[in-house]
TrEMBL record, chain A:
Function (record text): Involved in the transmission of sensory signals from the chemoreceptors to the flagellar motors. CheA is autophosphorylated; it can transfer its phosphate group to either CheB or CheY.
Superkingdom: Bacteria
PANTHER family referenced in this protein's UniProt entry, alphabetically: CHEMOTAXIS PROTEIN CHEA (PTHR43395:SF10), SENSOR HISTIDINE KINASE CHEA (PTHR43395)
Protein name: Chemotaxis protein CheA
EC number: 2.7.13.3
Taxonomic lineage: Bacteria, Pseudomonadati, Pseudomonadota, Gammaproteobacteria, Alteromonadales
Length: 691, 168
């Protein structure tokens, strides 16, 4: 054991999680009665490699648990047992359970075994355990509350050794079942001259305190049944104190000897808990990604080109400056720019993964929820190969789960309602992903009843979000579900709606520089459309000048830029200017004012207005000048500083200076235009239109 | 001071566990000291990009080899009158653990002075001036020869969330 196994832990965990994903996907495809051996084989193989790996690394809690799972699968595979719906459910639960166990181990925590024990027990009941065809090598027992003491008399026949059995192993296995007290009888040993070294003259009496059943003990002696006299009697009931001892040092912690940073397992209390907590998320977020070899190869090619260009440039640098060298220098620089851009694009591609990584968790989710709700649902996945930045992917998963749950819970009707409405009893939920411009669009569609505009409006009125007399279009009403404070509290269920509502979904998506919209038709269904930038690392930006400062406005949110015609500007309220632009009224936000910068141009006719859109609201940002448009690499300002209202991040410009990136929706909030309960200012602009 | 920093000190100083090294700098005629292990580098002042609505003592952010680093003027932080920056104005870049988050920040000071080994025992407790806002920033006072050095508690000095205020 001189090799440090811990260096392989990450790979093991990754492969195990992949294995679990595969198991889950295959299990969902399984319909009892119609299972084909290939599917079962795939599941079996996944379970088997997890068992093997965890055994190697000493994660006995995982390997023991997987072992029972594997036994069941093996029997199904061999046709000894029919697959039932109950099996599938149990297996799916075990996938969850294994995932939890592995996550805990990965975070170097002691896993919570209660679920595993429950499930394991259920499996053992199914298997009847004694039916097991395999040579049981279960090494450890998991602590369960009730324990009993067995008296075991084991008197091997003298020829035991000749059958290749070794009592010591059996005793070892017994000891692993629980607390073992051993008495050995050696009175049968003959005189030395009669002693035959290949015959067994010893016999034993054991007192075993264990939570396991008699059959588990019998199993150990299964192979020597015919070669020994074995008597097992129960001689004790519950031993409370012993049960306690047992659980304080369960044999499953045997993992500590084989690597798993022993400090966290054996002495979790010795480590300041604070530290462990802060460390954990960091570790989890630094997981690796798998990259196709073709992507790596093309990167290597590009780096090769870059090196050549660099060599060329340095050669030019050594020459005397003449007109020809300047021309070739320019050529070289153009080539360098080209190389850099290619390299950048390809490096970004490394982080791109197909969205199927997110989609793949939905079949299970839909299955579980539809069972719970007694609805019949078909899930369609479209565009699974659409690629998306890994970071975006990780963050979009939760909002999507929320939206899908909503669709299942509120969107789709029960089969009876559907039949009554003349629809197919099976509802369809479609997840669709595709690229559009520099964005990825994810649609979550259901063919349910659509949003109930009447009820949403009533709810919004009760919550004070709108006034009863407000005339709202259907789209405007649908928008209300994204408002903070709009909660459908009367239908709280464990599927959706715990007050944490759509506003959180929208906020999370906006935090990714994305947007979410809903469209809905009564009786036909509703569609949620999420739009996201492909990557969080790079942004197309418009550089603008405010006083002597340079800011960056994300190009994606800019609608247009224009010079202000002051005849179309009117003042609303105390200090809000509104520009009439075609048939819209655009509030003018003075950036220098919001950011408290001095020295900016204040006369409206001498400045430029950048009209931007966020949350379906258009506002105009007053800037001194428009500068270049360029791609900028987003850097965190928060990392070393703190969150700045109206600023989403920072970047470094070509001259090495820092420039800040404007967060449009944050800016609108900061300007006070849309404080909670202050639709007024925007609504006010509409009123003038009527007047 | 973080546990890690203490551990490092013990490793570096070996037997002299109680001795810490402090980098001192001058500000308005006073000498201040900070744990030398927190110091990442010392640079000249360069123009920083203004962060909107930041407290006055935050001069902005600079690009430190690809990382965005906020710059705090220590004079303003302590409520001392500011002086015009010159090419000789010094920025001490420190990396500190603030509320379990690792932050890199720059501190504008008048001039860097010296490095002292100071035993923890000789550092005197801060006199009881609870009324002063600045008391919380002081880790201790110590005499070095004839001079008095104010040892700073950087984690407190640079915890901007505590008294976040807008300037007009």
């Amino acid at each position: 054991m001189s090799i440090d196994l811990s260096q392989f832990f990450e790979v093991f965990f990754e492969e195990s999680f992949e294995g679990l994903d595969a198991m889950e996907a295959e299990l969902l495809n399984l319909e009892p009665g119609t299972e084909d051996s290939e599917t079962i084989n795939t599941i079996f193989r996944a379970a088997h490699s997890i068992k093997g790996g965890s055994g190697t690394f000493g994660f006995t809690s995982v390997s023991d648990f997987t072992h029972v799972l594997e036994t069941l699968l093996d029997q199904i595979r061999d046709g000894q047992r029919q697959l039932t719906a109950e099996h599938v459910n149990l297996l799916l639960k075990s996938v969850d359970c294994l995932r939890a166990l592995l996550s805990a181990l990965q975070a170097e925590q002691t896993p919570d075994l209660s679920d595993a024990n429950d499930l394991r027990h259920k499996f053992e009941v199914i298997l009847g355990m004694s039916e097991s065809t395999e040579n049981q090598d279960a090494q450890a027992s998991l602590p369960v509350e009730s324990e009993s003491t067995f008296q075991i008399d084991f008197k091997p026949h003298p020829h035991l050794f000749k059958t290749g059995n070794e009592p010591l192993y059996m005793i070892g296995e017994l000891a692993e079942l629980g607390e073992l007290e051993t008495t050995v009888f050696y009175d049968a040993i003959p005189d030395f001259e009669n002693l035959s070294p290949d015959e067994c003259f010893l016999s034993w009496r054991f007192f075993l305190t264990t939570a396991r059943t008699e059959s588990a003990i019998k199993e150990i002696f299964e192979w020597v049944e015919d070669d020994a006299h074995i008597e097992i009697t129960v001689c004790g009931g519950l031993f409370e104190h012993e049960a306690e001892n047992e659980s304080s040092s369960p044999p499953v912690e045997g993992g500590q000897s084989t690597g798993l940073s022993s400090s966290s397992v054996s002495a979790p209390k010795a480590i300041p808990t604070k530290k462990a907590e802060t460390k954990k998320p960091a570790e989890q977020s630094t997981t690796s990604i798998r990259v196709g070899i073709d992507k790596v190869d093309s990167l290597i090619n590009m780096v090769g080109e870059l090196v050549i260009t660099q060599a060329m440039l340095s050669q030019i640098g050594e020459q005397e400056i003449t007109e020809t060298t300047i021309t070739s220098l320019q050529e070289g620089l153009a080539q360098l720019a080209h190389n850099t851009r290619d390299l950048q694009e390809n490096v970004m591609r490394i982080r791109m993964l197909p969205i199927s990584f997110v989609f793949s968790r939905f079949p299970r989710l839909v299955r579980d929820i539809s069972q719970k709700l007694n609805k019949q649902v078909e899930l369609k996945l479209v565009g699974e190969q659409t690629e998306l930045d890994k970071t975006v992917m990780e963050k979009i998963s939760d909002p999507m789960v929320h939206l899908v749950r909503n669709s299942l819970d509120h969107g789709l009707e029960t089969p009876e309602e559907r039949v009554a409405a003349g629809k197919d009893p099976v509802g369809i939920v479609t997840l669709n992903a595709f690229h559009q411009g520099g964005n990825i669009v994810i649609e979550i569609m259901d063919d349910g009843q659509g949003l109930n505009t009447q009820r949403i409006k009533e709810k919004a009125i009760t919550n004070g979000l709108v006034q009863p007399e407000d005339e709202l279009s259907a789209d405007e009403i649908n928008e209300l579900i994204f408002m903070p404070g709009f909660s459908t509290a009367d239908e709280v269920s464990d599927i959706s709606g715990r007050g944490v509502g759509m506003d959180v979904v929208r906020r999370n998506i906006q935090a990714l520089n994305g947007s979410v919209e809903v469209s809905s038709a009564p009786g036909v269904g509703s569609t949620f459309t999420i739009r996201l930038p492909l990557t969080l690392a790079i942004l197309d930006g418009q550089l603008v000048k405010v006083a002597q400062h340079t800011y960056i406005i994300p190009l994606i949110s800019i609608v247009e830029s224009l010079q202000i015609d002051i005849t179309k500007v009117s003042r609303v309220g105390k200090d809000l200017d509104v520009l009439r632009l075609r048939d819209e009224y655009i509030p003018i936000l003075r950036l220098y004012d919001i950011f408290t910068h001095k020295g900016a141009i204040e006369e409206l006719d001498k400045t430029l207005l950048v009209v931007v859109e966020s949350d379906n609201h258009k506002v105009g940002l007053l800037v001194d000048d428009l500068l270049a448009q360029q791609q900028v690499v987003i850097k965190s300002l928060e990392a070393n500083y703190q969150k700045v209202d109206g600023i989403s991040g920072a970047t470094i410009l070509g001259d090495g200076r820092v420039s800040l990136i404007i967060d449009i929706s944050g800016l609108i909030k900061l300007s006070g235009l849309k404080r909670p309960g202050s639709q007024e200012l925007l609504v006010e602009a509409k009123v003038i239109e009527v007047a | 001071m973080s546990e890690q920093a203490e551990l490092n000190q013990q490793l570096i100083l070996g037997g002299q566990q109680d001795e810490n090294q402090y980098l001192t700098f001058m500000m308005a005629g006073e000498e201040y000291g900070m744990d030398i292990l927190a110091v990442q580098e010392i640079r000249g002042w360069e123009d920083a990009t203004v962060i909107p609505n930041a407290p006055t003592f935050v001069k902005g952010a600079i690009n430190l080899r690809g990382t965005i680093v906020p710059i705090v003027d220590l004079r303003l932080r302590f409520g001392i009158d500011s002086v015009a920056y010159s090419p000789l104005t010094v920025v001490i870049v420190v990396s500190v653990e603030i509320k379990e988050q690792h932050k890199v920040m720059g501190l504008v000071v008048d001039a860097v002075s010296d490095v002292y080994s100071i035993s923890e025992e000789t550092a005197k407790d801060v006199p009881d001036f609870q009324d002063s806002d600045n008391a919380q920033y002081v880790h201790g006072l110590v005499n070095v020869g004839e001079k008095m050095v104010v040892l700073l508690n950087l984690a407190k000095v640079l915890d901007l969330s505590a008294n976040y205020m807008h300037h007009g």
